[in-house]
Design a protein that fits this description.
By secondary structure, this protein is α/β, with parallel strands linked by helices. Helices cover about 25% and strands about 30% of the residues. The strands form two sheets. It has a seven-stranded mixed beta sheet with strand order 3-2-1-4-7-9-8, with helices on both faces. The chain starts with 7 loop residues before the first helix and ends in a 5-residue tail after the last strand. The protein binds S-adenosylmethionine (SAM).
Length: about 180
C-alpha cells in the first residue's frame, strides 16, 4: 500500500504539534514525515519512526534537511530515551478481518483501537514525567474505549481540538501522566 498522504487528520494534529512541540519530540507512525517536519521548527531534537519501509524511505527523503532522525520501529521497539512530546496519528479504522498487513496506514485492529491500546501501554516509559502525548483518533475508533485505555494506562487527558468530517469526528487529545515526579 502507498505511504499515507497527509489529509485532514494530519493537518488537524499538525496545528497542535506546532503549538506544543519543544525539547525532544517523537513522531510515532511518521508516514510522509509531515508532523516531524512541523515539530522540527520548534523542537531541539526530533525522532520520527514508522513500521513501514516505504514510509521510512519517503520520510528520510522529505526530512533530509530538517535534522530529524528517521528510524524503522514497530511502535517503541526501536526507540530509546525519554521525550518531552510524543505525537501519534495512528491507523484507527476498524478492520473486522484484522488483516493489518494490507492496510498498515489505516487499520487499527479488529475494533479500531487495538494499536492505540498497544501504544498507550508502552508510551509512559518513553515520556518524561512532565511530558505530553498528542494523540489523534476518531469516532470510528470508539471514543469511550480510547478514553478507558488512556485512564487505564495512567494518563489524564484534555481535548485540544475536534473536526467534524460528517461521516466521522476527529479528536486530538493532550495526555499527561497522572503522577508527576519532578
Ligand atoms: C494514519 S498514518 C499517519 C501518517 C502521518 N503521521 C500523518 O499524520 O500524515 C499512520 C502511520 O502509522 C504507521 N504505523 C502503523 N503501524 C505502526 C506500528 N506498529 N509502529 C509504527 N508505525 C506504525 C503507518 O505505516 C502509517 O505511516
Amino acid at each position: 500500500m502507498d505511504v499515507y498522504e497527509p489529509r485532514e487528520d494530519s493537518f488537524l494534529l499538525a496545528e497542535q504539534v506546532k503549538r506544543y512541540s519543544k525539547g525532544r519530540v517523537l513522531d510515532m507512525g511518521t508516514g510522509s514525515g509531515i508532523l516531524a517536519s512541523v515539530a522540527s521548527e520548534t523542537a531541539d531534537e526530533v525522532v520520527a519512526c514508522d513500521i513501514d519501509d516505504g514510509a521510512i524511505a519517503l520520510a528520510k527523503k522529505n526530512l533530509k534537511d530538517k535534522g530529524v532522525s528517521v528510524i524503522k520501529s514497530d511502535l517503541f521497539s526501536g526507540i530509546e530515551g525519554l521525550f518531552d512530546v510524543i505525537i501519534f496519528n495512528p491507523p484507527y479504522l476498524p478492520d473486522p478481518e484484522d488483516d493489518r498487513a494490507r492496510h498498515t496506514a489505516l487499520d487499527g485492529g479488529k475494533e479500531g483501537w487495538e494499536l492505540i491500546g498497544r501504544f498507550l501501554s508502552s508510551a509512559g516509559r518513553f515520556l518524561k514525567s512532565d511530558g505530553m502525548i498528542l494523540l489523534l483518533f476518531s469516532t470510528f475508533s470508539d471514543k469511550d474505549k480510547v478514553e478507558e485505555l488512556i485512564a487505564k494506562n495512567g494518563f489524564l487527558f484534555e481535548q485540544v481540538s475536534e473536526m467534524d468530517l460528517f461521516s466521522e469526528i476527529l479528536y486530538v487529545y493532550k495526555l499527561r501522566k497522572k503522577i508527576h515526579v519532578d
